Amino acid sequence: MRAVIQRVSSASVTIEQKKTASIDQGLLILLGIESQDSQEDIDWLCNKIIGLRIFNDQDGTMNCSASDLDAQLLVVSQFTLFAKTKKGNRPSYIKAAPPFVSIPLYESFISTIQKQCTQKVETGEFGADMKIDLTNDGPVTIIIDTKNKE
């Protein structure tokens, strides 16, 4: 499981010219799922994301987490995070899990992270052609891969 986490001052999802989800200060989480992912990956990743100290404290130091600030979350599925670009110019998405595997894992991720938040977790729509609008705050962007825990 791979996630790109962006600290945002705002973010929204638009599908077919209709805004379907939006948040103010918080995290935009782009989530890629591969076939080998499991609930163990979900639990680890959710705990890591909620605990990341990437929000500024009163002194301007990144010392607060999303849970400390009751920040809003927007989760968007993004299979292209598993693009393989070694050969040629057309990315291969062979490592991305097919929908029958990834949809239940995506839904479990949302459910698991929701249990750790007091605010409703906003989401994109799995498989939809989405337009993501965001204002990255910082900019702060973190990439986490559950198979490469650096």
Structure in words:
With 150 residues, this protein is of the alpha/beta class. It has one domain (2-145): D-tyrosyl-tRNA(Tyr) deacylase (D-tyrosyl-trna(Tyr) Deacylase, Chain: A, 3-Layer(bba) Sandwich). Helices cover 22% and strands 39% of the residues. Strands 1, 2, 3, 6, 7 and 8 form a 6-stranded mixed β-sheet that branches. Helix 1 (39-51) crosses helix 3. The longest helix is centred in the C-terminal third of the chain and has 16 residues, at 99-114. The two termini are 14 Å apart. 35% of the residues are buried.
CATH 2nd-level architecture: 3-Layer(bba) Sandwich
* N-to-C CA distance: 14 Å
SS-based class = alpha/beta
Instruction: Compute the number of helices.
Output: 3
Number of strands: 8
Percent range for β-strand residues? 35-45%
Q: What's the CATH first level?
A: Alpha Beta
Choose one word for the global shape.
globular
Overall pLDDT score: 96
| Count of separate structural domains | 1
What is the gyration radius calculated from CA atoms? 15 Å
Give the name of the CATH superfamily: D-tyrosyl-tRNA(Tyr) deacylase
Give the H and E element order.
Answer: EEEHEEHEHEE
CATH topology: D-tyrosyl-trna(Tyr) Deacylase, Chain: A
The largest pleated sheet is described as: 6 strands, mixed
Helix content: 10-25%
Low-confidence stretches: none
Topology:
Elements: E1 2-15, E2 18-23, E3 26-32, H1 39-51, E4 53-56, E5 62-65, H2 66-69, E6 72-77, H3 99-114, E7 122-123, E8 130-145
Parallel strand pairs: 3-6, 6-7
Antiparallel strand pairs: 1-2, 1-3, 1-8, 4-5
Helix pairs in contact: 1-3
